[in-house]
Structure formats: C-alpha cells, structure tokens
C-alpha cells in the first residue's frame, strides 16, 4: 500500500514554478502564463498546461517528471525565491496578458481586436496570426510593446503559430481566442470600447457592457437593464451597449430579473478605484490611461479603502491618504506599466511613455481671436466666440465619435477640417477632449489675476456660483478634494488639481 501511495504521489501534477526574479508562481494563476519560467528544484525551463481533463500544472520542456520537482511546495519547507522574497499570491498580475478588445465603431465586423502580450526584449520567436481577414506576422521590436491586431468575428476568431515554436505563448493566446463565441460575449466598457469578460465571469451591477452576439436580445427587457445606445446589426451580428442598474432599494429583485433575462450570474457592485489626476494624455484601445514618462504622481479615488499598486519593475510606491476617499500615489522609479487595484474590486492599468508619444496631435479649434486644443482649458474660450469656428482633426476617423449638441455629425465631413457657426455650446470628441459652454453665466472678480480665474467660468457654468466662490480659499490638494465633495463637483476635480499644480511658485500646491 505504501508503494502504491508513493507511485500516486510521484504522478501529482507540478504545481509551482519560479519567474525571472525568483518569485514563486502557482499553476492556474495569471502569473503562470509568464515568460522564462523555471522549475524551482532542477532550474530547467517549464511551461504552463491545462485542459478539459487535467487541472492546471507546469511541465518541463525536456519531458522530465522528477518526483522532487512535482512534489515541491514552498509553503511546506520549500526554498524561497532566488531574490530572497516570499511568494506573492494576491498581486498576481501579468502586464503583458493578451485580451480581446471591442472598439465601438460604425462597422461591427471591423471592431474586434487582439491585444498581444508585451514580450521581453530579445524574444526570439515570431508570431503569425491567420484569420479570414488575412495573415499578419510580428516579431522583434514589434513585440516589445503592446500591439493590437484586427481580427474578424468568428469562433475562434483566428489561429496563432510561433516560429521557433513557443508552446506556452500559443496556448495562452488560443485560450483567449476560445473565450469568444457565437453568442453571449460581454465586453466591460472602457472609454469607447471594452475588454472581453471571461464567459464564466459574473456581470456586475452599476457597470456598462458591450453585448456582441448572433442572437438579438429578447423584448421587452427588464427595468434593471438599460440599452444605452440603439442596437447595431451587421452581417448577422448584433451589438448592444448595456447598463445594469444599481439601486439599493431594488437590488435583490434586479439581480433575480437580470439573471433570468441574460442567463448570467449577477453580483452587486465591487469596490472601485479611478485615476482622477492628472488627466490622461490619451486612452489606448483597451482603456489603459496613458501618461508621459515624466509623471511621477497620481491621485486615485477609491471606495474600497487604500488602493494597492503593482509596478512593472516590482518597485514599491508611496501612497498617502488625502481624505474623502482620495489617495496620492508617488512613483519612486521610472515605469512603463502599473496597475492600481483594490482587494476584491476593480483594477486600473496605466502606461507611461515618452512625452512626445504621450500627447498625439489633438482636435484643434480655431476662431477669429484664438486657437486651442480641444483638451485644453482655453478651448472653452475659443468655442464661445461668435462667427466661424474651424474644427480640425488629426484623422478623419475621429468624425465618427464626434458629438455636436449631443448628436452625431451627419453626413460625416470629407476631410480633416469642418467649419461651424459659433458660439459652440456642446462639442465632444471622447478622449480627445470636449467643451460644454453656458453663455448666460457671467462672473466678475475683484482680484485682477487669481489662480482660479482660468477656470472659474467653467466651474460656475457646471457646478454653480457657490462652487465657483469656494475656489478662493483653496491652496492645497486636500482642500480641493474636500471642495469637490462638498459641492458635488468630483468631475471637475482633475481640472482644479491641474490648475493648482501650475501655481507652485505662488505658494499654491
């Protein structure tokens, strides 16, 4: 009997490996799909495996099935990592994880993208993605940064091959492809698109999703489900933008109704975290906020307590409590990627790039008395001018997302410029900026040039004269946070913090 037990133990799947910095990673976690993983016992290269009949485990490329390797467990006397650090189980994030991205465009058939993983410099294999749309091969420098590849709506959408063969990479991308199906695809909304949720993941109240399927939603829908935009249909595919109501008074009934209608598990809202300052230079297609590499300080708002921060380099960061659910995050080193997250809640990915790449050419307003980028504070001044106001875009594709007084432009302009008759009341270009003007508001100040003179008209028009008057007493970031909470003006906090940071020489910070 003892001999049989020994045989059974020797066949136990290998559960642990170590990464490039010596930390332990466990099979079945996101880190298990990392690169350059090694056996903690014999130090040989290993890869992650899983299937319909086998639980997730690691295997040696050489085929070795040494009993010591398979039975290794750092929690019961195993060695710690080569760096001397203990295993990390909570912050198991892979900064180069592949994902399927939905981009909200005019044509549903052209809106599915694969976000390729970020490979380490010197990665030897080339990736070939083959679909009904054609073949694309990537390698070398292309793989050292996040890349997006357009793929068709199919099940599976495409095929992946690597040369020289890299079975671990092929398996993790095939696993992503397998999550897209002919019906029931939910993309959690980020900016003008979404990231595909795992088919087994529950939907969350208070969130927006893109629903993509070959089967339209039945009518009528329950009151807890709001269809934000009219549905789109293209080549047999239906696209909806859905919002799941979050009302404490009807929460239990809403969960039951939505579960029955959508056939999905529904859960109450989880703790959330958002980056509210400084304003992002842009948002990538996967919703990642992009900042210049010179940005070393962020302000996050969290309703789940102090956020956690995981950096791509593994370096620690300083987190200070500003009060009212806002936290200041200070980076001690230059980073390319970071993830801000709260336990059992949401996470927000941020990227840092060269300053010249962080801010691409934006939407420009040109009037008789000035010119301004739509994302700048001075854009409202140009938009208020009477007469012709020229709107220029860096790409004609941006006209598709433009909104003038809440409506799409129709017909779409032919070219990169459009002349409108000012003053403009409401012009929006998504992440490229927007202006909202209330021309009837007039505010006079005694002080010739206080710091808040740049934005008091915007605040007065949006949050009222009382909120505008309250700007006079603000001199520190924590005062700005309290002002925003008291005046129900959290949406204006990034603007106020930006103005504060530019007045350091005057004792305002």
Protein traits:
509 residues, alpha+beta, 8-stranded antiparallel β-sheet, 10 helices, 16% helix
Radius of gyration: 26 Å
Indicate the CATH architecture of the largest domain.
Sandwich
* Number of helical elements: 10
Number of structural units classed as domains: 6
Helical coverage, percent range:
10-25%
As laid out across the biggest beta sheet, the strand order is 9-6-5-12-11-14-16-15
Report the CATH topology name of the largest domain: Immunoglobulin-like
Distance between the termini: 73 Å
Strand content: 25-35%
- What characteristic shape results from the CA principal axes? globular
For the report, how would you describe the main beta sheet? Answer: 8 strands, antiparallel
Low-confidence segments, ≥5 residues, pLDDT <50? 1-10, 77-94, 439-448
Q: Class by helix and strand content?
A: alpha+beta
Task: Count all strands and give the number.
Answer: 34
Give the CATH level 1 class of the largest domain.
Mainly Beta
Report the mean per-residue pLDDT as an integer: 79
């Amino acid at each position: 009997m003892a001999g049989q037990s020994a045989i059974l133990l020797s066949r136990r799947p290998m559960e642990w490996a170590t990464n490039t910095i010596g930390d332990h990673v466990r099979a079945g976690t996101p880190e298990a799909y990392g690169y350059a993983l090694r056996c903690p016992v014999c130090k040989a290269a290993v890869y992650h495996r899983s299937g319909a009949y086998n639980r997730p485990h690691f295997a040696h490329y050489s085929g070795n099935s040494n009993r010591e390797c398979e039975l290794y467990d750092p929690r019961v006397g195993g060695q710690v990592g080569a760096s001397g650090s203990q295993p990390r189980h909570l912050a198991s994030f892979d900064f180069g994880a592949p994902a399927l991205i939905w981009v909200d465009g005019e044509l549903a058939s052209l809106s599915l993208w694969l976000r390729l993983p970020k490979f380490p410099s010197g990665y030897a294999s080339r990736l070939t993605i083959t679909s009904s749309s054609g073949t694309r091969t990537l390698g070398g420098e292309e793989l050292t940064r996040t890349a997006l590849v357009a793929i068709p709506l199919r099940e599976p959408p495409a095929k992946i091959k690597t040369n020289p063969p890299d079975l671990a990479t092929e398996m993790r991308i095939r696993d992503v492809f397998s999550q897209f199906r002919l019906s029931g695809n939910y993309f959690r909304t980020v900016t003008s698109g979404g990231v595909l949720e795992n088919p087994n993941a529950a939907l969350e109240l208070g969130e927006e999703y893109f629903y993509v399927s070959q089967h339209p939603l039945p009518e009528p829908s329950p009151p807890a489900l709001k269809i934000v935009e009219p549905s789109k249909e293209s080549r047999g595919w239906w696209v909806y933008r859905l919002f799941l109501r979050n009302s404490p008074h009807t929460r239990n009934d809403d969960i039951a109704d939505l579960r029955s209608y959508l056939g999905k598990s529904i859960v109450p809202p989880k703790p959330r975290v958002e980056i509210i300052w400084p304003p992002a230079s842009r948002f990538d297609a996967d919703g990642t906020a992009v900042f210049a590499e010179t940005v070393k300080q962020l302000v996050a708002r969290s309703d789940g307590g102090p956020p956690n921060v995981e950096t791509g380099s593994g370096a620690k960061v300083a987190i200070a409590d500003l009060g009212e659910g806002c936290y200041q995050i200070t980076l001690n080193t230059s980073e390319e990627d970071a993830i801000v997250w709260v336990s059992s809640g949401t996470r927000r990915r941020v990227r840092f790039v060269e300053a010249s790449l962080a801010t691409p050419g934006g939407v420009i307003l040109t009037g008789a008395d000035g010119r301004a980028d739509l994302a700048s504070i001075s854009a409202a001044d140009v938009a208020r001018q009477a007469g012709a106001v020229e709107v220029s875009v860096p790409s004609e594709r941006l006209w598709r997302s433009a909104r003038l007084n809440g409506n799409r432009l129709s017909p779409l302009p032919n070219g990169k410029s459009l002349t409108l008759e000012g003053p403009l009341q409401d012009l929006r270009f998504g992440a490229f900026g927007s202006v909202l003007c209330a021309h009837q508001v007039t505010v006079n100040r005694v002080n010739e040039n206080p710091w808040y003179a740049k934005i008091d008209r915007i605040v007065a028009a949006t949050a009222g004269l009382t909120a505008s008057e309250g700007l006079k007493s603000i001199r520190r970031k924590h005062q700005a946070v309290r002002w925003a909470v008291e005046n129900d003006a959290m949406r204006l906090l990034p603007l106020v913090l930006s103005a504060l940071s530019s007045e350091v020489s005057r004792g305002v910070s």
